[in-house]
Amino acid sequence: MKTTTPTVYIVDDEHAIRDSLALMIAQENIPVMAFESAQAFLEACPQECSGCAIIDYRMPEMDGLELQAELAKRDITIPIIFLTGHGNIPTSVKAMKAGAIDFLTKPVRREKLISVVVAAMMESEKTLAENASYKEAVRCIASLTEREYDVMLLAIQGHHNKDIARQLGISHRTVEIHKSNIMHKTGASHVLDLARIAHKSGLKE
What we know:
By secondary structure, this protein is of the alpha/beta class. It has helices at about 15-25, 40-45, 65-75, 90-95, 110-140, 145-155, 160-170, 170-185, 190-200; strands at about 5-10, 30-35, 50-55, 80-85, 100-105. The chain is built from 9 helices and 5 strands; from the N terminus they run βαβαβαβαβααααα.
């Protein structure tokens, strides 16, 4: 499976349930794919998949919580909706603490299912945008030379060029050249923008 189109992935070992859920979702013009096991889904799901997953809690070989843990291990951040006929409060709490966005009990009403799916798809879109922004910020910061990185750290801490030059033992003109290169490489328009990019990359001063 190579698609990155936002899709609802159904993972349930019951054929009738898979077909019913897939039909309800497809009728909303939302792309949907169904899998009979956690293993089948893992084999098909690329790390960059987007959308959400509706996962049956009780399945043979690998259950829903184990699949949730495996997805996290693979850094697949797709929102998860659990669906089960054997729900209980401790199970629901455990799933939600692990990051599931909802826990629905079979049979689920169409209106409820679609409402939760739409919310999950929106959450996925938000997460993908944040991840893309983070990766771009990391790329920008990684492109800096060691000296440019030093200059950037001092600049976003509020130090002026003369103070940066003194602390690093370089000329005022050299600091200006480094800052120009930094702004070009990161795409920052000013120091506050540079600080935002640096912090978004995970930098801690």
